[in-house]
Amino acid sequence: MASAISPVQGKDVNGPTAAINSLLKTDLSVATNGMVLDIKFSPTFFDKKSHHQALRMLVQAYAEQGGGEIQFNVMDRDTLLDAQTNPEQYKDLVVRVSGFSAYFTSLVKETQDEIILRTEHLGV
């Protein structure tokens, strides 16, 4: 089960732009609590300067078409798995959960697993 209005983990296989386009087909006015969209990017996504502008344009288009809160995690799966195994080495690792930030190692395993299972995007 996905958190908030995010796609189910691993099902957003056509990238964040496709996920946002699908989401915007729904009536977001009924989400009065400002449902959040979580997107996880690989750190290597930001290696390309053009991706910075692409992400900016994606967020702008989402907002202009009625999208609400969108939040990002930028980390890879291996780092998160290592943080589960060696929490003492990752005391300062902060993640976006679903509308709030938390120290990854302070979260229950089920929430950690949900964040790990989110699709890790390499592009928009």
Number of domains: 1
Low-confidence stretches: none
Order of strands across the main sheet: 2-1-5
Helicity range? 25-40%
List how many beta strands DSSP finds: 5
User: So what's the overall shape?
Assistant: globular
Q: What class would the helix/strand composition place it in?
A: alpha/beta
- Compute the CA-based radius of gyration: 15 Å
Strand count, sense and barrel status of the largest sheet are:
3 strands, parallel
The percent range for strand residues is: 5-15%
Order of helices and strands: HEHEHEEHE
Keywords: Organic radical
InterPro entries: Gly_radical, GRE
Pfam family, one: Gly_radical
Protein name: Glycine radical domain-containing protein
Describe this structure in words.
The protein starts with 15 loop residues before the first helix and ends with a strand. The chain has one domain (16-121). The chain is built from four helices and five strands, in the order αβαβαββαβ. β3 (94-96) and β4 form a beta hairpin. It has 124 residues and is an alpha/beta fold. Residues 3-124 form the Glycine radical domain. Pfam families: Gly_radical (PF01228). Keywords: Organic radical.
